UniProtKB/TrEMBL annotation:
One of its GO terms (cellular component) is plasma membrane. One of its GO terms (molecular function) is olfactory receptor activity. InterPro entries: 7tm6_olfct_rcpt. Belongs to the insect chemoreceptor superfamily. Heteromeric odorant receptor channel (TC 1.A.69) family. This is Odorant receptor. It comes from Microplitis mediator. The chain crosses the membrane at residues 45-64, 70-90, 136-156, 176-198, 300-324, 336-353. Pfam families: 7tm_6 (PF02949). It is a multi-pass membrane protein. GO terms for biological process: signal transduction. It is found in: Cell membrane. Keywords: Cell membrane, Membrane, Olfaction, Receptor, Sensory transduction, Transducer, Transmembrane, Transmembrane helix.
Length: 432
């Protein structure tokens, strides 16, 4: 056996977890250094304190300008985005142990899949690692542009602070202005770094659950032990070279076709009683495990996703309107475009992952039917297949607030709704 051809898929996951701990949202392990523990304690105290103070200055500006809808809209956009970040951070802090359990449940099985000798499985994982890396840098790019726009460009266009606010001290004095600028810049940077870590970790849970659903779907089709072998962990030199020379642009349908029955746990290789019955029951067990993972994802994401949908819709409607109504106001135009893009990207990714998960889960019914059960003359097997198919007919979906299914249909519906509200706002403004 030679060394594994795929690098760990946990590379950026570990970075995000480390970042979340540095921000004070999660605790470091007991084995962590004193420096890490002190930084964690500092983050727990300093970050919330500064955020609360910043929010109070924004509320003060809203109260002082309660009769100016444009100012309220500007402040409201920033508050809405900041509230989403803070709520997700609080949810991650509150459900720390649950998140860590789900992370292990999802990623431990992928660690085993990476050891498989099947070229199709390794190619699929390599594909997803490539897109995960691409998404990470795309997310970093988006928040960097947003951060530079808010912290650098906006103050340059109006010679003031990044965000409107009323401080309990005179910000016209050089020292006080620097303190106010630091508070706002730090909070914006903290919020952007936090949302990158939280969103990327959450998307990873969705992404690698989808990979396991793909492999499970293939396993159902490969339950015939007379025709399809079980994949071992002994990677051939040919497979190793193909994966090492992986090129995303040259991957075709044949490369991602799985030709073996794949194990999700190392102990399964030591307890094989290879027959159709054993394979199908093994598939059912992992199917139930993935169902539980998806239910757990719904439990922890449902409220934050509902807020996410609401805030993204709000940001796209309002900032589209502000950008359209004030095209010559550079400061407002920059901020509106930045908020608009941020809300659009977040919504697109969540709905995209939800759509793919739903598709892969629905494909399991077809895969069970194609398992070759009709060639077996054991009546118990037919009952087993029938019972399991009834279960797969119940949709597996990620829902926001238990109401809205995350899918491309939902994404398009939100865009249509946002556009309708945008048209209504511009029409009312023209009439006035």
């Amino acid at each position: 056996m030679i060394k594994r051809p795929i690098e760990t898929h946990r590379k950026y996951l570990d970075k995000c977890i480390h970042c979340i701990r540095f921000c004070g949202i999660w605790k470091f392990d007991s084995s962590a250094s004193t420096y890490h523990k002190l930084m964690n304690l500092f983050g727990k105290i300093f970050n919330p304190t500064l955020l609360i103070f910043h929010f109070l200055t924004l509320f003060a500006d809203i109260v002082a300008n309660y009769n100016d809808l444009i100012i309220i809209a500007d402040d409201g956009c920033f508050l809405a985005g900041s509230f989403t970040v803070c709520f997700k951070a609080y949810e991650f802090h509150l459900l720390n142990n649950i998140y860590m359990k789900i992370i292990n449940d999802v990623h431990d099985s992928v660690d085993v899949l990476q050891k498989s000798c099947d070229l199709g499985v390794l190619t699929i994982i390599k594909q997803y690692i490539f897109f995960e890396t691409l998404d990470f840098f795309l997310l970093i790019y988006v928040v960097t542009v947003l951060g530079v726009g808010l912290i650098v460009l906006l103050p340059l266009t109006r010679g003031g602070l990044p965000v409107r606010a009323i401080f309990p001290f005179d910000v016209t004095k050089p020292l006080m202005h620097k303190i106010a600028f630091f508070i706002q810049a730090y909070n914006i940077s903290f919020g952007l770094v936090t949302i990158v870590a939280l969103e990327y970790l959450s998307w990873g849970l969705m992404r690698w659950t989808i990979v396991q659903l793909k492999v499970l779907s293939s396993n159902y089709r490969n339950c015939n032990s007379d025709k399809v072998p079980i994949a071992s962990f002994n990677v051939t030199k040919n497979t190793y070279n193909k994966i090492k020379n992986f090129n995303i642009l040259k991957v075709d349908d044949e490369d991602i076709e799985i030709h073996n029955f794949i194990v999700f746990e190392e102990k399964e290789l030591n307890s094989i009683n290879d027959c159709f019955n054993w394979r199908f029951r093994t598939c059912i067990r992992h199917h139930q495990r993935l169902i539980k993972i998806i239910y757990d994802l719904n439990d922890i994401f449902t409220v934050s996703l509902l807020i996410q949908l609401g805030v993204s819709t709000f940001l796209m409607c309002l900032n589209g309107y502000l950008a359209f109504m004030f095209p010559h106001d550079n400061q407002r135009l920059i901020r509106s475009v930045l908020y608009l893009v941020a809300g659009f990207v977040q919504l697109l990714y969540w709905c995209g992952f939800g759509n793919e998960l739903k598709f892969q889960a629905n494909d399991l019914t077809t895969s069970q039917w194609m398992s070759g059960w009709e060639d077996k003359f054991d009546g118990g097997i037919k009952n087993l297949v029938t019972t399991s198919m009834i279960r797969t007919m119940q949709p597996l979906e990620v829902r926001a607030g238990g109401l809205f299914i995350l899918s491309m249909e939902t994404f398009l519906s939100i865009l249509k709704t946002s556009y309708s509200v945008f048209v209504l706002l511009t029409t009312v403004s023209d009439e006035e």
